[in-house]
Amino acid sequence: MKTVTEKGEILKLSTKGRYGLRALIDLAQHSDEGPVSIVSISERQEISERYLEQLVSLLKKAGLVRSVRGAGGGYMLAKKMEDISVGDILRALEGSLKPVECAGLEPDGSCAASESCVTKYVWQRINESIARTVDEIYLDQLVEESRKMNPEGTNTEQRGCRN
Amino acid sequence: MKTVTEKGEILKLSTKGRYGLRALIDLAQHSDEGPVSIVSISERQEISERYLEQLVSLLKKAGLVRSVRGAGGGYMLAKKMEDISVGDILRALEGSLKPVECAGLEPDGSCAASESCVTKYVWQRINESIARTVDEIYLDQLVEESRKMNPEGTNTEQRGCRN
DNA sequence: TCATTTCCTAGTTATTTACTAGGATTTCCT
DNA sequence: AGGAAATCCTAGTAAATAACTAGGAAATGA
Asked: pTM for the full model?
């Protein structure tokens, strides 16, 4: 299942962020039925098992999910849905969300010209604006939204969606 | 002059956007002395001549600068500084600024699941927030800002800054 | 005519992305 | 005990992309 990443698009989220968010929403939606396995998410979302494994492991490392090993095991949310923001999720998956690093950090001597750096001003504002946006969307809102769109049973899910 | 792109940073602007914006600010600052040549920008900003050429050509294609060929030639702004937004500049250099494409477009049949696509909601909001931010910063503000920081003659410029 | 500039296209190298692969470990179930 | 079903962990790899480099044509002023 090779990904077709749109051409000419920069500043784009990688499949990690895109698949990972979808996976976590899926997990959240099925979290009342006990631990959710990679295989089941993989089937519903049509994302490679092995790759999903890695993404979920990032979410775990970030403390967003916890796992139960062994047969019948799987993953479950480590916090309440209303306490997990899209920012938490994307940062766990993508690293930082800053299009340009530097913007503020000098202690390590990263940018000597930082004093006279005009563009810094721009990168800072972009960073802040993205942060503000993703930090005010929470998982419970997305699950809610999703329930409204695909009311129980009408389970088309996001099959094959690359985003 | 190989670029050291910070690790672990995703959603990042490419050197096109970063160098290109710096170049255009430089150009704007020297635009009262007639056409500004690639060589001169290249020297001041320490960006490869050949590479800069390509970046500036993108800015030209987008109608932000115009050129004078031949000896003594160079580039000059095609519009007033207050009519060129950072959004115009970055879009000219980077293509679109949407971290995730799809978010809204179906006519061409891009995303079949779009109806039931929850994450679309997220990508849309991120896209909008970036757009709003970059479209409200204008070139004249940056030039002004830069004048304040590096008052005439104190020309440290952004030498060697990778952003 | 010659130096200086933009213009245009193609080639190249290094990095990064998006996976795939293999196998160890844990746990439940019979 | 033993096997199936899971997570866990590390490494490898092919394709795509980014970041340049290279070569030369065309225009223009001195």
From this structure: 0.84
